[in-house]
Amino acid sequence: MSNIESTFPFATLANDALCAPESKKGDTCMSKQEEAGLILKLYELRREDTMRKARDWYFRDFHPQSIADFTETLFGEHSGHVRMVVSYWDMAAALVNSGAISLELFTSTNGEHIAVFSRIEALLPEIRGTAPQFAVNLEKLIDATPDGRQQVARIRERMKGIREQLAARQAKSAEQG
């Protein structure tokens, strides 16, 4: 039984499934229905209550500007949240990188991984000084995605603008209140 089958029992890996033309002999190939099943399972896992809370926190409150910010988070109250979100998307990326889910299907049904990566991209060299495998699958997926790094930069700038707008609204409310 493969790792995919043990993690996702419904995903029977048939040897006679249609493989992408670039597949090599011995690669495990999945039918479109099995790939769709994995996408739906990934979505289901994102809806789990603890994961939802972790994702909410990650996007609302996690804005590390330095390795010190990141390290403080890892040893703080939200350590589990950052680890859960990054490792979830790194695992999902591994499914794509290994061919279990096609890049085209994954990127047409997901975008959150790009925003997750945008929060940690600048810190990766320092993080990997002590954790060499940190988010390697996620980075590989970003690099395999057409215009992946540009998408990351656009999302980072968009999120920065949103945070600035929210801060301005809060300041205005505080002045009026």
**Spatial gap, N to C terminus:** 62 Å
- The pLDDT mean sits at 87
Q: Biggest β-sheet: count, sense, barrel?
A: none
> Which structural class is indicated by helix and strand composition?
mainly alpha
How would you classify the quaternary structure?
Answer: single chain
Number of domain modules: 1
Summarize the amount of helix as a percent range: 55-70%
What fraction strand? Answer: under 5%
Give the overall shape: globular
Helix and strand succession? HHHHHHHHHH
Q: Roughly how many Å is the radius of gyration?
A: 19 Å
What is the helix tally?
A: 10
Q: What's the β-strand tally?
A: 0
Give start-end ranges of low-pLDDT stretches.
1-5, 7-18
Q: Could you list some keywords that capture this structure?
A:
single chain; about 180 residues; mainly alpha; globular
Question: What would a concise description of this structure say?
Answer:
Helices cover 67% and strands 0% of the residues. The protein has 177 residues and is mainly alpha-helical.
List the SSEs and their pairings.
Elements: H1 3-7, H2 32-46, H3 49-61, H4 67-74, H5 79-97, H6 103-109, H7 112-120, H8 124-127, H9 136-144, H10 148-176
Helix pairs in contact: 3-5, 5-9, 7-10
